[in-house]
Amino acid sequence: MIRKNCQIFGAMLCFTLAACSSNPYPLLESATLYQPVTTTPENYRYLIGPGDSLSIFVWRNPEVTTTVTVRPDGFITTPLVEDVPVSGKTPTEVARLLEKRLSSFIRDPLVTVMTQDHLGPFKEQVRIIGEAEKPEFLPYVEDMTLLDVMISVDGLTDFADGNRASIVRVIDGEQRQYGVRLDDLIKDGDISANVDILPGDILIIPETFF
């Protein structure tokens, strides 16, 4: 009798999952994969992204010294030069690019670029989805670890299955998925469960099955 009831329950569960997963609309193709620049924490360099604020100082030329915000398309416009592509570049690379553009108007320009409101390109941001208290995206910070991420999102919900969590990472243009042990790290204080986070990582925290 028990076995028969289990079979009936299993059939009902399969039917329910199938019904929930059905979608009458045609599915879009998978999102384009973008390879983050940083492959190890040691070679990390901050890259400018949309929404970042840039302070641009041009030595001895206060009329073109300014502060601008990177547009959603990754470009900026400054006095004398328009539509300068900056997203995905380091501040030093942007400074050299502006010097080249400004050289048509200023003799031997010397430019320094400083960043504020650090967001970085989407492909460099760390995303946390699922059963975190505050699912969100985080700008990557040098030497960021899984513990740092969990502190930033206020830990797990009561429904999280932390030891079934995983990190999706793009390596050589291919998405790979790795398991992590959030329950061991947060609830048991097992520091061996702490791992390095890289730009572009997606942390997926599933719901537990009661």
From TrEMBL:
Origin superkingdom: Bacteria
PROSITE patterns per the UniProt record, alphabetical: PROKAR_LIPOPROTEIN (PS51257)
Pfam families xrefs: Poly_export
Domain Polysaccharide export protein N-terminal: 41-114
Range of residues in the leader sequence: 1-21
Listed GO MF terms: polysaccharide transmembrane transporter activity
Keyword Manganese annotated: no
Record PANTHER family: POLYSACCHARIDE EXPORT PROTEIN GFCE-RELATED
Name used for this protein in its record: Sugar ABC transporter substrate-binding protein
Gene source species: Aestuariirhabdus litorea
